[in-house]
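This is your field. Have a critical look at the following sequence-structure pair:

***
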Amino acid sequence: MGLSVWKWGAFLTVVLLSACSGERSGQVQFAEESIDAESLARHVKMLSSDQFLGRQPFTEGEVKTVAYLSAEFEKIGLKAPYADGSYLQEVPMVEMTYNPDPTVTLQLANGAVTLYNRVDYLAKTPHITDQVEIQQAEVVFAGYGIVAPEYGWNDYADIDVRDKVVLVLVNDPGYATQDPELFNGNAMTYYGRWAYKYEEAAKQGAKGVLVIHNTEEAGYPWASISNTAGTNLYLLTEDNNMEQCALTGWISEEACQRIFESNNLDFAQAKKEALEPTFESFSLGTYLDLTIKNELKYDVTHNVVGVIEGTTRKDECIVYSAHWDHFGIGVPQDGDSIYNGAADNALAVACMLETAKAFAQAPQPKRTVVFLSPTAEETGMQGSLYYALNALFPPHKTVVNLNYELPLPIGRMRDVTITGYGQSELDAYVDRFAREQDRYIAPEPSPENGMYYRSDHFSFAKVGIPSLFIKGWQDSREHGMEWAKNQVINYWETAYHKPTDEFDERTADLSGNVEDARLFFKIGWQLANEDTFPEWSDKSEFKTLRENSLLTK
């Protein structure tokens, strides 16, 4: 018996929908597979070449970098969202070059201690002014410099630090004690980051704050910060940052020990006592004089932003990010003074460009997809902060941020490492698509380094937007876990923030970076074509921010 007209029409509809679905699925797969190692190599080779001069904002290196990215965005077919068809978001900033006193003599009750710039201390100021003078400022040891009511913790409870200089320990008590019930145990919280310690000291009215450096607890050696010290970028503010401490910076643990010993105090014992919530900050009976002269350069740097518009939910977006900047030309090492930043962050930008190319070749997504390459990440995530505060889409319409940062060209990995594991429901998206690649998810192996608070996704998290930072990092398919671990250690020790972070085609294996970029594409494609908003986990410090933004939309 033949089909009725109605049944035949319904049958044809099902067949056509299935065919369309299959065609769409095939087009998505084709788009994913367009991400390839040859294109990655082309981008990273160019961006990390000497002709880009280390990609420092306000330099010829920036001009070349943003021109290259704009041309690539146009070639891919991304929409330019700014006036006159531009991909460039202007970010008004000031570059400050610091000239602190080459030596500082601290006056003690029974003598003096001399400290040397770059060797014992690093001093800068956020105050946008020609000169800052610290005169006879009393020096205070304030433990970890933390005020955290949820942990019953207040290092400033019993001391007035107004107009004083505070010395504070890096990281937080959870790491030092390895107590999983204290703060977040081994994993650094935002309370452990130097940025928080600067903010809290300013709230307490301190004249200055120096973070006591310890390589293990900071997650990087002294050279990583001393080699790149001397200049910084700040967003312009109405009060020229006068609400912040006049002096910010670092002091080596060895120099701090000398100050304690000269005052007949036990630094090791003070560190131990600082691990208790009952710790009381105390004066070191020491006074500091320091002058910082600044050279100011007012200018505009640029975020590079391209867009693929959505269809039915185009007023909502997901944001991919990968910062383009590095440190330019700096302290020479073995005759090389160009900080090329191949892994940090040229390869990451290359991965984002390939992701954008894949989206351009896929069917048009429901939601809009934004590709953001921020400026000034290396000087405090300033470009991404500016974008988050002046975004194309408000926070309650921004579904997630997917951030590329610091991939290494060391081949395919079994793992997908999630920095900030447990922060949000985005972990489940990673797990789903990692399984499709025969991979497994893993938490950051060194959460004590606080990497979740050290890249551009943090700027989005601070306004409540769930943010993801992933990469293959721990378990080489070919060589195993110990080999992968040694590769990462070698990068931190020999190349991170050094001129040796260069791209070598002879040794680079980009197959793992291709796999990671395809994974990020699959996650983003899923998010761009569904209706839900992933949520922060209950334990995340950003959950309330998101809830408030959705309530006040």
Remarks:
- The CA atoms of residues 44 and 347 lie 5 Å apart.
